[in-house]
Amino acid sequence: MDSAPRRLVELTTHESLRLLGCASFGRIVFTAQALPAIRPINHIVDGDAVIVRTHLGAATGDAVGVVVAYQVDEIDPVTHVGWSVTLTGIARQVHDPRDVARYQELLRPWVNGQRDEIIRIQPELVTGYRLTTDQGPG
Amino acid sequence: MDSAPRRLVELTTHESLRLLGCASFGRIVFTAQALPAIRPINHIVDGDAVIVRTHLGAATGDAVGVVVAYQVDEIDPVTHVGWSVTLTGIARQVHDPRDVARYQELLRPWVNGQRDEIIRIQPELVTGYRLTTDQGPG
Question: Which distant-in-sequence residues (6+ apart) come within 8 Å of A83 by Cβ?
């Protein structure tokens, strides 16, 4: 129940990336018109990078890219036990035609007809934790 | 299935706030040390404001507050139908002792022993959408 005491256990980077790789979607966090923005989205993991298909504005198209966070969680709506993983890194548009074709095949957008690019997020920082009760793992 | 065509239907502000009020947790999006940050958290809705109990840094304690986003979704991990609601507004720490006491009673933190304040998010912007398949509502 919600009133049960809960502990927050930090996850290793390895375990965080494993959970991220198992999840089918997450949320990209970025800045849009100087305001914090968040968008649920599906992803794939390629090596140590997260690949998404969306449109975040012009800045991801240049060589510098933009800093974003990408977050995935699985939290029980009743007991609130579960886990959350967030990675922070530079988002850059993928330009190589072979990579674009491969990612487009693997990563189907949720909604057709919307403008999107293939974006690679290279994590610089990975944090994750598990919320558990003292009764056992969540 | 993931390959089924999906439509994105915009929700009214009223419907977005209703869904937010029914949800037991969401994610607060803010800036921490100049980086995008996101944290899953539980909330209550009081009037047209969202109340959370967390610590976002010193800036929420002053009169100006900080701009944050608060996001709630319910998306099926397999079919990816569902909905997402995001509100954007100023987060300010609640100082009135009676309000603090009332909110502390209503809003139990997930993890004990962590520093937190009562924070009121006054929405300036509410956006929501429903992802549905052509077969029917999600």
Answer: A11, A19, A73, A74, A75, A128, A129, A130, A131, A138
Rg of the Cα trace of chain B?
A: 16
CB pairs under 8 A between A and B: 100
pLDDT in tens, B61-74: 777 789 999 999 99
Q: Which residues pair with A73 in a beta bridge?
A: A84
Q: According to DSSP H, which parts of chain B are helical? A: 13-22, 97-106
Contact B35 A2 (CB under 8 A): no
* Band (B43; pLDDT cuts 50, 70, 90): very high
The answer to whether B8 faces chain A, any CB pair under 8 Å, is yes
Question: Touching check for B78 and chain A: CB below 8 Å?
Answer: yes
Identify the sign of the CA torsion B35, B36, B42, B45: positive
The radius of gyration of chain A from alpha carbons, rounded to an integer in Å, stands at 16
Residue A39 to residues A75, A106, B57, B116, B126, Cα–Cα distance (Å): 18, 20, 24, 26, 13
Give A-chain residues touching B23 at CB under 8 angstroms.
77
Top residue of A27, A54, A112, A115 to mutate, by most chain B CBs within 10 Å, is: A27
- Closest Cβ–Cβ partner in A36, A40, A111 for B29: A36
Distance, CA of A121 to CA of A87 (rounded, Å): 9
Nearest of A99, A98, A72 to residue A87 by alpha carbon: A72
For chain A, say whether B68 makes contact (Cβ under 8 Å).
yes
Confidence label for A137 from pLDDT (cuts 50, 70 and 90):
very low
